[in-house]
Amino acid sequence: MKMLNVSISPHIRTSRTTTKVMLDVIIAMSPAMIFGYIYFGWYALLISVLSVSSCVLTEFVYEKIMKLPVTIGDLSAVVTGLVLAMCLYSTSPWWIPVVGGVFAILVVKMLFGGIGQNFMNPALTARCFLLLSFSRIMTAYPSLTDGVSAATPLSMAAAGQHVSYFEMFFGTHSGSIGETSTIAILIGFAYLLIRRVISPRIPLCVIGSTVAFVALFTVMKGETVTLNYLTVHAMGGGLLAGAVFMATDYTTSPVTKWGRVIYGIAVGLITAVIRCFGGSGEGISFAIITANLLTPIIEKLTYPKPLGTYGKKAETK
Amino acid sequence: MIKKTFRGGVHIKDMKHLSSGSAIKEYKPQTDLVYLMNQHIGAPAVPCVKPGDRVLVGQTIAEPGGFVSAAVISSVSGTVKTVAAHICHNGDNALAITVANDNEYEAVEGFGVERDYTQMTAEEIIAAVKAAGIVGMGGAGFPTHVKLSVKPGIKIDYIICNGAECEPYITCDYRLMLEQADKAVLGMKIVLSIFKDATGIFGIESNKPEGIAKVKEACKDEPRLSVVPLKKKYPQGGERVMITALTKRRINSKMLPADAGCIVLNFSTAIAIAEAVAYNKPLTHRIVTVTGDAVNTPSNFDAPIGTNVAGLVEAAGGFKYEPEKIIFGGPMMGAAVYTLDVPVNKTTSCILLLKKDTAVPEPHECIRCGKCLTVCPEHLMPIKLKNTADANDYAEFEKLNGLECIGCGCCTYICPAKRRLSQSITAAKQFVLAEKKKAAAKK
What ipTM score was computed for the predicted complex, to two decimals? Predict the structure, then answer.
């Protein structure tokens, strides 16, 4: 008889792996991304390809140079590349996703120890880096397929204009590549929930608290709050995609149940502050990476109570 | 039907179909029988026979070595060969009595004689349970007479019969439900006769509808007994989890079930109590499921304690494939062995032979998905506990309630990065407990 394996229990494992989890995220993002490619044209696809390949290549080269095991097989670099492409405009020059991808993986992820070790969302940090470094290029609204530059729903609402619900729901308006179509993002959200990749706590708290705080701050500023205005804040910008695909990033969000609620509300609060009082109309990216920094302390504050230390004990004692 | 359950846990394919159809077969061992002295939690038993002695079925061959300890009873008649160290399923060597079987099965006087338990006092019943060497047969092996000897002043409200059998593959309790449900009901009635104010609950996982029906049928005339179906989820059969699911009461690592007014008995244990008290048959046999994809005919055996496992595997048709892993107990909490030359003991519910060992993938970096928190039935934070355990930061480990871990293995099972969470946590827990014991001994 050959040698028997001996190890400590448990002796069985779920078939789900890191790679499969990442694949699920990619599948969930694909409706929104594919809509972007169709609506914004082939150049949007090129930006995604450049972003993904620069992320994967950076990880590969870094690990080869540092003589580390190559981990591109876990697909997490692909997810980073897709998230970065998702929040770029389709009119960005070709080098923007390349620089962003290298920054995301090299500076934010690998220098801090690779997968699971970074304390800020790599793709969003890269986007903010690009936004601050190349402001004029990054904030130029994308021209639509007919070549006419158009304002995003958020900038229209800020100017007091009415935005069509239909356009926001299907995403036929100006914006980042993967962030315009509400229905496509919701399909991805449903997929993530069904596959139990994420819990609904973070997305719901982010969206709910952003809308609530925006309403509150608008009233505080003495302006009128209309339903259309609030809907634009929920559906017209990057909030939905940010709440579903970016705020839920495993590594940089809390793992505890109530920690996720607090984190979601923190993201919503910061987003609303930036949108109502800040110079930028968006703010979700900055809000998420700021809240990322709070994750360790939130986790510490919401450490779960073990089963036997609370609740009903013996009635007789 | 609302099925009671708990928060956390994992859904695992239960694989019980392999052996659930096989009726319990009596197994007669042909080789020597080995009785280990450490078949229970607590002090090892002390042998009271010497080589050359003739022993009979039902004879006490080792006395309890303390209060928390249990007697060992011979399951065959024959001659004592040796009293020496023997390898046991956890890889340790332990003192054991080896008996050469003479195949005559001559029993001691009074063996199998019926007794009327209603005429017995609580002390007599507990003494009978103690003399029969009964321990918790679900896996932990806590001496049953200790469980029943409740400190004065503690009121017991619930006697819970644990028929969850939540570990995949194992079917010994399920077969007992089908074939001997009335005996389990009798065992529960005996225990209820000690605790006059308590109610008895059978907690059975809902993946055994026939079992639930049989037990319901058997206790339909018993006003103090009820059957509660539980949701099929691992580790539904864990003692603390079971108490929470059925009574909403919660206990922690520093408490015994009795502190919450509960006593939890395994289904097999209830039957053993009935046999010992009502029929004067001490614990000499137990049901063992031999199953897995590497064995020809997965079956359930009524095997004498002390039986060599290799013989049982042969009785189940031998190997279909060369196994990569052999597990004593279920796949979630069982112990892997490196040889079949180990005896069946009082807690051996299953011998699992696996063609392929699926626990081999190397762990990766944690991606912080938080799945381990969602599945932990004790509501701990395995990811943090593992970090403190790996850093040997035992003070922090204790502060983060690491000692509350019940070692169910859900966190390791669910981890997509295949990290060995429960393994690290269990190791740290054992270290901390050993240190505490040392410190207590010094005082």
Answer: 0.90
